TrEMBL record:
Gene3D superfamilies according to UniProt: 3.30.420.40, Carbamoyltransferase, C-terminal domain
A family per Pfam: Carbam_trans_N
Carbamoyltransferase domain boundaries: 2-323
Phylogenetic classification of the source organism: Bacteria, Bacillati, Actinomycetota, Actinomycetes, Micrococcales
Protein name (Swiss-Prot/TrEMBL): Carbamoyltransferase
InterPro entries: ATPase_NBD, Carbam_trans_C, Carbam_trans_C_sf, Carbtransf_dom, DHBP_synth_RibB-like_a/b_dom, NodU/CmcH_Carbamoyltrnsfr
Region span, Disordered: 551-576
Residue ranges annotated for the Carbamoyltransferase C-terminal domain, each copy included: 374-543
Entries under SUPFAM superfamilies matching the protein: Actin-like ATPase domain, YrdC/RibB
Family that this chain belongs to: Belongs to the NodU/CmcH family.
Domain of life of the organism encoding this protein: Bacteria
Length: 576
């Protein structure tokens, strides 16, 4: 059975394809359209379908629209209530329901030939829950979903067993931890429904001095649900204009809300654990991208393992809807193989891109590749790393990443400069899986999807200062060389040179742009940002060579020397 999953209703439109129970492809529309988050999450845009990612999913599997058996859409208009009944204030909210009711027509326009497919509306939070429980490697789990909103709720607590999800309870709107956090994001001068992660980063600079007052507005109710009233934020701190300055009261407010959120999430997870006694908790929904809260849940809720869907935001609901529809129609579904579910190009295609761009490059023999890249990193060069299929979800996990040396504190600023973003934002360490326990604690290991924060061992804080956040933690990704051989070998070679089994990693994009997805995006970034080396699959492009080929002097401050004999090593060795 071929099931095309579609998320279009709120945030981060995306598509996913499940064939015979297997996740074949999943991608966010922004990676194709190059519009950050795909579209603004307003009712007027809810009709727009992720056409480019839908088409690509089918192409990837060699299918046409006529081959699709089921379209699974992650919103069920039957569950909708009017905004008034939900206590929301949006006179246009009903458009979402109307568009969802008419999605069949929009689908036929977007993908002619798809007329025969059965349309399956999957409730929004069930789609989130399936993206966690069905996509995880565990046959049984308790499942917790928290986000801004779905049809009428903002939460789901339930259990997955024997191929089906049992829903215990949902929290209806207007109570929503996601909407609370979004409202704070706006008050702090950031873009609502987009920049919530900046609030999380800012929180670690403040003290939670408003916590007591917040407890009156936000609390778990002891029955699996919660109350979340949005307070008048000006009681605590003035509305902030994002002018790049930072008042202590804003960081304190962010910290207070963050801590309160963590406390309530722990209460909700504990309630679920007491009810099920399960060993494993799976989670999704935009709130599950809050790594600090995830680690507290792991430590304090009673569950031994916590697995979070890497595309925990609404993008993941296309995948969840497809898995849920397949399961409901009797298909045994298999866990997702990893977060690398997007586009890829083979080595020859990548070389073709480089030749087409008239960029000089080398293709070292495989045994030299990691050594060459590690040389650049050890010499404090910044490396743009493009390898394999792109990631589904907001985290760069070694497929579209920007890498640098963790041993120099100023590299945090340097990475943020490349990306044109706020200096308070942390960058995250990638660490070799087998070395992680000696450096990082207080969070789950392995941690392959960068969804938890860990405490950095005292002895390591000065050794990897660029990777350590102001509060002594780091949001780590463990790298298993068996799963990511090229990246693993590179970090191993870097460790040989520096004694550090860690590199710093941030997503490969510049300010305001979606993550790099295709080779054109990678070349554009390389051409416009101070990056010393571009890794495109097995091919290496050195900034120094590009300038030499162009007959220009080398840029001042170039961190990396040309290794001798480079030309002699070049396999592909194309020149301009
Ligand atoms: Fe959602």
């Amino acid at each position: 059975m071929r099931v095309l999953g579609v998320n279009a209703i709120y945030h981060d439109p995306s598509a996913a394809l499940v064939v015979d129970g297997e996740v074949v492809a999943a991608a966010e529309e922004e990676r194709f359209s190059r519009r950050k988050h795909g579209k603004r999450p307003v009712p007027f845009s809810a009709w727009e379908l992720p056409e480019l990612s839908m088409r690509w999913c089918l192409e990837r599997a060699g299918l046409t629209p006529a081959d699709v058996d089921v379209v699974a859409y992650s919103f069920d208009p039957e569950l909708s209530k009017s905004a008034e009944d939900l206590g929301l204030h949006d006179p246009w909210d009903h458009l979402r329901t109307t568009y969802a009711q008419n999605v069949g027509g929009f689908l036929r326009s977007a993908l002619p030939g798809i007329e025969h497919a059965r349309l399956h509306h999957v409730p929004h939070h069930v789609a989130h829950a399936a993206s966690a429980a069905l996509a995880s490697p565990f046959p049984t789990s308790s499942v917790l979903v928290l986000d801004g909103r779905g049809e009428r709720a903002s939460h789901l607590a339930g259990r997955y067993e024997g191929g089906r999800i049992e829903v215990f309870t949902t929290q209806e709107l207007p109570h929503s931890l996601g909407l609370l956090y979004e409202s704070l994001t706006e008050h702090l001068g950031f873009l609502r429904s987009s920049d919530e992660y900046k609030v999380m980063a800012l929180a670690s600079y403040g003290r939670p001095r408003f916590l007591e007052q917040l407890r009156e507005h936000v609390y778990a109710t002891g029955d699996g649900g919660f109350v979340a009233e949005i307070p008048d934020w000006t009681r605590f701190a003035s509305r902030r204009v994002d002018d790049g300055t930072w008042g202590g009261e804003h960081a304190d407010l962010a910290s207070s809300v963050q801590v309160r959120l963590e406390e309530v999430l722990v209460d909700l997870a504990r309630w679920l654990h007491e009810r099920t006694g399960d060993r494993v908790l799976t989670m999704a929904g935009g709130i599950a991208l809050n790594c600090v809260a995830n680690s507290r849940i792991w430590r304090e809720s009673g569950f031994e393992e916590v697995w979070v869907q890497p595309a925990a935001g609404d993008a993941g609901t296309s995948l969840g809807a497809a898995l849920q529809a397949a399961a409901e129609l009797g298909e045994p579904v298999r866990p997702m193989p990893g977060a690398d579910l997007g586009r890829e190009w083979d080595d020859a295609q990548l070389a073709q891109w480089l030749r087409g761009a008239r960029v000089p490059f080398t293709t070292p023999p495989p045994e030299r590749f990691a050594q060459d890249v590690a040389d650049v990193l050890a010499a404090d060069g910044v490396v743009a790393w493009f390898d394999g299929r792109s990631e589904f979800g907001p985290r760069a996990l070694g497929h579209r990443s920007l890498l640098a040396h963790p041993g120099h504190a100023e590299n945090l600023e340097r990475m943020n400069d490349v990306k044109g973003r706020e200096q308070f934002r942390p960058v995250a360490p990638m660490v070799l899986l087998d070395r992680a326990p000696e450096i990082f604690s207080d969070g789950p290991l392995p941690s392959p999807y960068m969804l938890f924060v860990h405490r950095v061992a005292d002895a390591w804080r000065d050794r990897i200062p660029a990777a350590v956040h102001v509060d002594g933690t780091a949001r780590i990704q463990t790298v298993d060389p068996a799963r990511q051989p090229r990246l693993g070998a590179t970090i191993e070679a870097f460790a040989d040179r520096t004694g550090l089994p860690v590199v710093i990693n941030t997503s490969l994009n510049t300010a305001g742009r979606p993550m790099v997805d295709d080779p054109r995006d990678a070349l554009e970034l390389f051409g416009s940002a101070p990056v010393d080396l571009l890794v495109l699959g097995p091919h290496l492009v050195r900034r120094a060579d590009v300038f030499a080929a162009a007959g220009s002097p080398r840029p001042a401050g170039g961190a990396v020397d040309d290794p001798p004999g480079d030309a002699a090593r070049g396999g592909e060795g194309a020149t301009a």
